[in-house]
Write a structure and sequence with these properties.
This protein is of the alpha/beta class and 350 residues long. The protein contains ten helices and 14 strands. Helices cover 28% and strands 17% of the residues.
Length: 350
């Protein structure tokens, strides 16, 4: 069935019965780190400024998604979204929408201690902060910048500003930080953060991803269970990418405890080895105004041209619906014909 055969309806449905209600909005492809699973140490050519959606264009498209297409959650991503000068204004505009979406931000945390109070006042609900290691030398090896103290300050600033629950995103790389799963969980328990491990995905600009070198969800869980007791999480997963477990901090070998003395959660996002495509509820908007129906898609649908050519909101909504109707059943990483997206993660958004 061709995308043009999409039936009438208000939501962002696809041919497999899924409906996208979670919008990921990339605000920039620029970043102040050079994490090896994302981009090379020398960086990448940035998108030309005229191609980037203006603050007003971003806010308009978020409004179309929320008011007309059933989106209930909006997450701002990058690159590094804290580098977007108009971030606070964009957050405030989204918070003013009715119905009001849940608003979150994925960031590397650099500068978050300074910006968190203003973002909270503008309406941001919570943050996800990338933290792959607690060792300064490993951080420098992974990110090619010595900024670990800035990330830790950003985490503390987010918690102080009320951007909770503060969630940590951690990627383990074999031979670099693959022994740190228990230490990262202890750190999260001690500070009241929620930790999510993410399998390394084929989204690096170098296209050097090697499945045999990836630290798998099973390996991460085995490392955690060696030092913690993990219990099944009774909470319904729904469309969330992470499988979660309850962890009682008192069962850690070193005696570390959950921040509130009770049960905490830890999650593993096994995009590669434990795909959750059948429950995917995401749609993505890139910084240059392209709709992506899947993180690993090799095609995009252009909304920027329509916006700048005078299309009304009804036409933008129609184009977005058509774009999502053509979504594939799965990402196809296990297919021998799989090819990485032409854009790296920094230009797609999480």
């Amino acid at each position: 069935m061709e995308p043009s055969a999409r039936p009438d309806g208000d939501g962002l449905a696809d041919r497999y019965g899924r409906v996208a209600t979670d919008l990921r909005v990339s605000l920039t492809d620029r970043c102040n780190l050079r994490c090896s699973y994302c981009m090379p140490p020398e960086g990448l050519p940035w998108l030309p400024s005229p191609d980037i959606l203006t603050d007003e264009e971003v806010s308009r498209l978020i409004g179309v998604a929320v008011r007309m297409l059933g989106v209930t959650e909006v997450r701002f991503t990058g690159g590094e979204p804290l580098l977007r000068p108009g971030l606070t204004r964009i957050v405030a505009a989204a918070a003013a929408l009715r119905p009001r979406p849940v608003l979150s931000l994925t960031t590397n945390g650099i500068g978050l201690d300074r910006l968190a109070p203003g973002l909270r006042a503008a309406g941001l609900d919570r943050v996800n902060v990338s933290l792959d290691t607690l060792d300064p030398e490993r951080f420098a090896r992974l990110a090619h910048r010595r900024r670990l103290p800035d990330v830790l300050a950003g985490l503390a600033g987010a918690a102080s500003a009320g951007l909770t629950p503060v969630k940590l995103n951690s990627v383990l790389l074999r031979g670099i930080n693959d022994d740190e799963a228990p230490a990262l969980l202890r750190f999260a328990l001690d500070h009241g953060y929620e930790l999510r491990f993410i399998e390394q995905m084929p989204l690096d600009a170098q296209q050097a991803w090697d499945r045999t070198e990836m630290v798998t969800a099973a390996e991460i869980l085995a490392a955690l269970r060696a030092e913690f007791t993990l219990l099944p999480d009774p909470a319904e997963r729904g469309g969330a990418p992470a499988e979660t477990w309850l962890v009682d901090g008192s069962t850690a070998h070193d005696g570390s405890t959950a921040h509130d003395g009770g049960m905490a959660r830890v999650g593993v996002i096994g995009t590669v080895t434990r795909p959750f495509c059948g429950d995917c509820d995401r749609t993505r908007l890139t910084a240059d105004g392209q709709v992506r129906d899947c993180l690993f898609a090799r095609h995009e649908s252009d909304l920027r041209t329509a916006v700048r050519s005078g299309a009304d909101d009804e036409e933008l909504a129609r184009l977005w619906r058509v774009a999502m109707w053509g979504k594939r059943a799965g990402h196809g990483i296990d297919d021998p014909t799989f090819l990485q997206p032409t854009r790296p993660m920094s230009a797609i958004g999480g």
